[in-house]
Design goal:
Distance between the termini of chain B: 44 Å
Strand content of chain B: under 5%
Number of strands of chain B: 4
Shape of chain A: globular
Strand content of chain A: under 5%
Distance between the termini of chain A: 42 Å
Oligomer: heterodimer
Structural class of chain A: mainly alpha
Shape of chain B: globular
Order of helices and strands of chain A: HHHHEHHHHEHHHHH
Radius of gyration of chain A: 19 Å
Strand order of the largest sheet of chain A: 1-2
Largest sheet of chain A: 2 strands, antiparallel
Low-confidence stretches of chain A: none
Order of helices and strands of chain B: HHHHEEEHHHHEHHHH
Number of helices of chain A: 13
Mean pLDDT of chain B: 80
Number of helices of chain B: 12
Number of domains of chain A: 2
Largest sheet of chain B: 2 strands, antiparallel
Strand order of the largest sheet of chain B: 1-4
Chain lengths: ~290, ~300
């Protein structure tokens, strides 16, 4: 397997996981940027514990997710009662704090980052990543099709109406934030294992742009859009000629802006998913008949 | 005592500079409802364009200043159409994400296409080097004093414009209540475009003042500048123009006491970097705390 193929498979999966982490709160109209700093926290946690303490990957994954949940638990109760603007700014400020700390703390290698993790074999790496992808996908799918998913729909429609219907919106928000942070942390651990270490530039504001573009282009209100958007967008910037590679961020940014202006629900919205589902069912019935 | 005086002057200078930037921020929030997170980066882009013009014209100060002042409103007017449809359908969060994307794009352009991505330095003539006032061990450059005077003048001119002119009253009316302003015959989209251009003008002026004051810029300057402006915005409460001015002065003094050149002299490089990072984190924590208490938005 070439490095390009490995990276394609790895980063597609990692960005899908990240997009799913963002999808949950965004579905309830909560612009929560927690998955981004959780990803950074998870990656640094993985690099530090693997390099200094020699922890095995399975333990790192569990502890990193728990660490991200604990970190997000502190502001979660306050954030739950906020509107969109303050939540976005507060989580952006947290992202900035994590980023500045990572860039300046010597224990994390400062600006040079922290490398030297024992590399996993390609098979082990891909197995861990795709097993995580399946588990996260299953969790998000189940949440989508459960009481919580219907509650998210109600909150998305109108928070006050949802509260009047008996939904504890604050509790729901805290649950979403913690789940999103845990999934973000998992994405960070996988990212660190892919590179064999971490460096602060990987988690700069560009990461927010990547994540937001995948979510917006794929579709903010279904989990399926990210599965298509993440690999296509990753490959798109990689196959550009060298002279155009520097335009990667500009292309991502332009795509994000165009999508928000022209089709805020994304390329794949709920209507598309419903139409595909109907078509699939009719095909299945045709074959069975 | 000399150090204290220098810090006070430095604090007021930086504070009044931040005040000019924060006025732009607040104006857009009040009139259009857009929190333009890319605004500080657009300001830095104006600084870069000024640097290009200075280089192309053999450091012609007048042309450099004109470039900054013209580029600001131009950038504002160019980016305004991206926000207008979102403002129309009251998609404020989408507008915020668009502004963030604009900021990241501009930051990327600066880090790739200008000076090979390295920080830029403005000519010493722009900082009026050679003209300075000595307070014992402390030297206050003329550029700093000019920055101080001009930024205070700009703040007062803006307040005069807002309170005493017809167009200023139009802006205030839209900021107060968009629907009532529309019923009264005010063109809200035109006012929105005007506020973008005016904010751009303030950004352009701030750009040249920052260039005079700091003498250098880098592509990531917009990020830390943005966080400082957000700290001021949230400390003063969003949309509060006068509170913003007072908080800007306070923050200017706070930053001035930890200024890099003085810091290096007393504490050394590594401690200084830690002190600066601590300052960044403290301001971000302030933004975090205040936004958690923000119930109105």
């Amino acid at each position: 397997m070439t490095l390009f193929q490995l990276y394609f498979l790895q980063f597609s999966a990692i960005y899908i996981i990240l997009a799913w982490a963002m999808y949950l709160p965004f579905r309830a109209n909560q612009p929560y940027f927690g998955p981004f700093y959780s990803m950074a926290l998870g990656a640094y946690f993985a690099a530090y514990t693997a390099v200094n303490w020699g922890w095995p990957p399975w333990l790192i994954i569990i502890c990193a997710m728990a660490f991200c949940v604990l970190f997000s638990l502190v502001p979660a109760f306050k954030l739950a009662g906020l509107g969109g603007f303050p939540m976005l700014i507060a989580t952006l400020a947290l992202f900035f704090i994590v980023l500045t700390a990572a860039r300046n703390l010597a224990m994390f290698g400062g600006r040079h980052g922290l490398f030297g993790m024992v590399p996993l074999s390609n098979t082990a790496l891909l197995s861990a990543t795709y097993a995580s992808l399946l588990v996260v996908g299953f969790v998000v799918y189940r949440l989508d099709h459960s009481y919580i998913g219907r509650a998210l729909d109600a909150v998305h429609f109108d928070k006050n109406v949802a509260a009047a219907m008996g939904i504890d919106t604050a509790r729901l928000s805290v649950q979403l934030q913690l789940t999103a942070s845990a999934i973000g942390g998992l994405a960070g651990v996988l990212y660190a294992f892919t590179f064999g270490g971490v460096f602060p530039e990987a988690f700069g504001f560009n990461l927010i742009l990547y994540g937001m573009t995948i979510l917006t282009v794929g579709g903010m209100y279904t989990m399926w859009g990210s599965i298509i958007a993440a690999p296509i967008l990753w490959v798109f910037t990689q196959v550009l000629p060298d002279s155009l590679k520097t335009f990667g961020i500009i292309i991502y940014g332009a795509l994000l802006i165009v999508m928000l202006l022209a089709r805020p629900s994304g390329v794949i919205d709920r209507g598309t998913v419903a139409a595909v589902s109907r078509r699939w069912k009719s095909l299945f019935k045709g074959v069975a008949a | 005592m000399e150090v204290l005086i220098a810090q006070l002057i430095g604090g007021i200078k930086l504070g009044s500079l931040y005040a000019v930037v924060v006025i732009g921020f607040n104006l857009l929030i009040l009139v259009t409802g857009v929190m333009h997170l890319g605004y500080p980066t657009l300001l830095v882009l104006s600084m870069y364009l000024t640097w290009v013009v200075l280089g192309a014209t053999h450091n012609s100060l007048i042309l450099g200043i004109v470039a900054a002042i013209v580029s600001g409103p131009l950038i504002g007017a160019v980016t305004a159409p991206l926000f207008l449809p979102l403002i129309k359908r009251r998609a404020h969060l989408e507008a915020l994400v668009v502004s963030l994307a604009i900021g990241i794009i501009c930051s990327d352009i600066m880090s790739h296409w200008f000076n090979l991505g390295l920080p830029i330095a403005f000519p010493q003539s722009l900082q009026l080097e050679g003209h300075s006032i000595n307070f014992g061990l402390t030297v206050i450059r003329m550029g700093e004093l000019v920055t101080l005077a001009v930024s205070i003048l700009i703040v007062f001119l803006f307040l005069y414009f807002l309170n005493r002119t017809k167009q200023g009253r139009v802006l205030r009316a839209v900021a107060q209540d968009t629907e009532v302003a529309r019923i009264l015959g005010i063109s809200v989209p035109k006012t929105a475009v005007f506020s973008f251009a005016l904010t751009g003008l303030l950004g352009g002026i701030s750009a040249i003042l920052f260039a005079m004051s700091t003498g250098a810029a880098s592509a990531d300057l917009g990020d830390s500048l943005g966080m400082k402006c957000l700290a001021i915005l949230f400390l003063a409460s969003i949309g509060n123009l006068k509170g913003g001015l007072i908080c800007a002065l306070g923050l200017g003094h706070d930053i001035s006491t930890g200024r890099l050149d003085q810091c290096h002299r007393f504490f050394g490089h590594s401690a200084c970097s830690a002190l600066q990072a601590g300052g960044h984190i403290r301001r971000a924590a302030l933004v975090l705390r205040r936004s958690l208490e923000e119930k109105r938005l």
